[in-house]
Design goal:
56% of the residues lie in helices and 12% in strands. It is α/β, with parallel strands linked by helices. The strands form 2 sheets. It has a 3-stranded parallel β-sheet, covered by helices on one side. It has a two-stranded antiparallel sheet with strand order 1-2. Helix 3 packs across helix 4. The N and C termini lie far apart (72 Å). The relative contact order is 0.11.
Length: 160
């Protein structure tokens, strides 16, 4: 039952968004144009009538139903589907890892013309989060060492 509801909700919300965009782009920086006239979509306000705005639906969540629902809605609306599945019940550290992963690949996901179904794995999240924490820890340790060294130099120079 959850899947049917989500697919219908996605289709409804996305239809509203696509209709609004047909009247004019809501977010100018998000309007992505390409010159493939065979791609379904709304005409973009551009010099060439052959340019079409790509229609895509991108879903971020931790539910398998969301992944399937975005695929169903996209097929009904002649749009490409892209889904990113996060891990369920993440800790704050895992959330940090997931956000870091997504921020590093978001341009690739949005710029890719094909349907995508990406699942972020827990080992990748842990590796990314640990890398961030180690980098911060090393940066803080280097800063502390530099402070101590500077303090010692100033003390030997009788400035302190």
């Amino acid at each position: 039952m959850s899947l049917c509801w989500k697919a219908a909700a996605f289709a409804h919300e996305v239809t509203e968004m696509f209709n609004s965009m047909a009247k004019g782009p809501l977010f100018e920086e998000c309007a992505i144009l390409h010159a493939d006239s065979s791609t379904p979509g709304y005409s973009a306000s551009s010099p060439s009538s052959s340019e079409r705005r790509r229609r895509e639906i991108i879903s971020f969540g931790d539910s398998t139903d969301e992944r399937t629902a975005v695929q169903i809605a996209a097929s009904q609306l002649s749009a490409s589907s892209k889904s990113v599945k996060f891990i369920k019940y993440p800790s704050p550290i895992e959330i940090m890892g997931q956000l870091s992963i997504i921020s590093s690949v978001l341009n690739y996901i949005c710029g890719n013309l094909k349907d995508m179904d990406v699942e972020i794995s827990q080992p990748h999240v842990h590796k990314t989060a640990n890398s961030i924490l180690n980098h911060r820890s090393n940066r803080n340790a280097n800063r502390d060492a530099l402070k101590t060294k500077s303090h010692n130099v100033l003390r030997r120079s009788n400035f302190i």
